[in-house]
Design goal:
Length: about 270
């Protein structure tokens, strides 16, 4: 029986659709059969997204970049603790589990309630049904010296004040941890009222509030944050970006309209 979404942010549907769509392509760069299974068992008309190929490519590239960074971290730290903030219906643990890591998926109670219809907790996999700003979730995590924090598709919906407070709390709570996060350009925040996919066309209430000019600026938030590197979406799978790939050769366009994954370390 298909499950209906009620009272949960529908933004979790877009990444789910992206991964399932990519999995069904004849030439693909991510494969997520679990996403296909979940999408087929949620009562939602996903055909509404069919024409949104730039969003699909963007999130598919994001998924690949985060997967690759997480794989490297797990290879270097086989018994790591991974904290996935704003997990939605993400399936990364089931795709990357090495049999040793401990993984925590954190999201609002409504999202976790839906997750539990498709995932089961184990000794090494836990779901935490709390707001990321309810910092009691930190007490629910059993950490070790190797911690990776993932923030995918979430920070841009918070204000600068909220993001700053969150990063300061993470630095304070997880010494020597690493973090990989998605960031949008600051210029897109001003244009978020015109976000066709998220707000107008699909009646999904979600407005951008936070963006950055470059990842190194995050070092200004806390002197214990070290910027390591970033990966720009337009630099990957250029053939899939169609005509956009030509515009992305212009630095001004690339930095104004392209998202990136930023890699940080806390000291």
């Amino acid at each position: 029986m298909k499950q209906k979404l009620k009272g949960v942010s529908k933004t979790l549907l877009i990444p789910l659709w992206t991964r399932a769509f990519e999995t069904k392509q004849p030439i693909l760069f991510i494969k997520d059969e679990k996403a296909v299974e979940i999408m087929e068992n949620i009562g939602y008309d996903f055909t509404k997204f069919d024409d949104e190929w730039p969003t699909q490519v963007s999130i598919a590239v994001r998924t690949e970049l985060l997967d690759n960074a997480t794989k490297v971290f797990i290879k270097n730290h086989p018994q790591a603790v991974i904290i996935n903030i704003g997990c939605g219906l993400d399936t990364r643990f089931s795709r990357l589990d090495n049999g040793k890591i401990h993984w925590y998926d954190l999201d609002l109670p409504e999202a976790i309630q839906i997750r539990k219809q498709f995932f089961d907790e184990t000794y090494r996999y836990k779901m935490i049904a709390k707001s990321v700003f309810d910092y009691s979730w930190i007490d629910d995590i059993k950490t070790n010296p190797s911690v990776l924090i993932i923030a995918e598709g979430i920070l841009m919906y918070f204000t600068k004040h909220e993001v700053t407070g969150l990063l300061n709390k993470l630095v304070e709570s997880f010494h020597d941890a690493e973090m990989i996060l998605e960031a949008i350009p600051a210029s897109l925040v001003k244009q978020s009222e015109n976000q066709n996919l998220i707000k107008k066309q699909y009646n999904i209430e979600a407005q951008f509030h936070w963006g950055i000019k470059n990842g190194k600026n995050l070092e200004r938030i806390n002197d214990k944050i070290k910027y390591l590197e970033d990966w720009h979406y337009f630099d990957y799978h250029k053939d899939r970006w169609k005509f956009i790939r030509w515009f992305s050769l212009i630095p001004l366009f690339k930095n104004r309209f392209g998202n990136r994954i930023v890699h940080l370390r806390f000291y």
